[in-house]
Design brief:
β1 and β2 form a beta hairpin. The chain folds into two domains: 194 residues, 2-enoyl-CoA Hydratase, Chain A, domain 1, CATH 3.90.226.10; 48 residues. The longest helix is centred in the N-terminal third of the chain and has 19 residues. The protein contains eleven helices and ten strands. 49% of the residues lie in helices and 17% in strands. It is an alpha/beta fold and 257 residues long.
């Protein structure tokens, strides 16, 4: 499958989805529609164990929605835009595959919002991140109001979105928005190495952990225990669980399905 505004490729069981709309990765309608299609294709690809979001441009991760596109929107257009975005958010949160982000350069607006739904976010030490929507009397509507509240906690999320400024990679790390800060020249290799480590683990167990944590945090504790019980019972019947036990007892590396 080919895309006009994305670079998509697979390396060692890691599927890379890279924004590519020069000069600054401003998102237009076509790019917005391509991202869920590419993500769905990577989910369906049985050779892909981990999905990584990145930019194919050196200086820009994303500058968010193309302002000229936003300026032309009617309220009905905005409903359609956010509906497409929310479908992507739901697909990401329901993904059985781990999701990583490689954030470099300037990273603001919608493209940054998308990776709030990833599991682990790597960021280049010289990156600048922000959600400046308040400065155009708007909100970050790609599930980010909900994601930031969960990632940062309500007070920090409100301040971050109220102020609308850019923060450094180290500040974003201190806030709890990004997880690992790396030298810019090492960003892609660090993400690929981490992703390859995950890709070598049993896929069903990775999916089970992701489901328990992602769904469990949204419900009362007792309901989270119900999810955990269901997942544990399912895993108990899996070939990988039997293989893991045998490999442990036989003191050999496991051979996952």
């Amino acid at each position: 499958m080919t895309y006009e505004f994305l670079h998509v490729h697979v390396k060692d069981r890691v599927g890379w989805l890279e924004y590519h709309r020069p000069p600054v990765n401003a998102i237009n309608w076509e790019m917005l529609r391509e991202i869920p299609r590419a993500f769905d294709a990577l989910l369906e690809d049985q050779t892909v164990r981990v999905i990584a979001f990145a930019s194919a441009l050196e200086r820009y991760f994303t500058t968010g929605a193309d302002i000229r596109v936003m300026q032309a929107m009617t309220p009905d257009d905005m409903r359609a835009w956010v509906t497409v975005a929310h479908r992507l958010v739901r697909a990401m949160r329901g993904s059985p595959k781990p999701l990583l982000a490689a954030i470099g350069g300037t990273a603001v607006g919608g493209g940054l919002e998308i990776v709030t739904h990833c599991d682990v976010r790597f960021v280049a030490a010289d990156a600048r991140l922000g959600q400046p929507e308040i400065n155009i009397a708007f909100i970050p509507p790609i599930g980010a109001t909900q994601a930031y509240a969960r990632l940062l906690g309500r007070p920090r999320a409100l301040r971050f979105l109220y102020e609308g400024g850019l923060v450094s990679a180290s500040e974003a790390h201190a806030l709890g928005f990004v997880d690992i800060v790396v030298p810019p020249e090492e960003l892609r290799n660090e993400v690929q190495t981490y992703a390859a480590m995950l890709a070598a683990k049993p896929a069903a167990a990775l999916a089970a952990i992701r489901r328990c944590v992602t769904q469990g945090i949204e419900v009362p504790f007792e309901n989270g225990l119900d999810i955990e019980l269901e997942v544990a019972v399912d895993l108990a019947a899996s070939p990988d669980f039997a293989e893991g036990l045998s490999a442990f007892l036989e003191k050999r590396p496991p051979r996952w399905a």
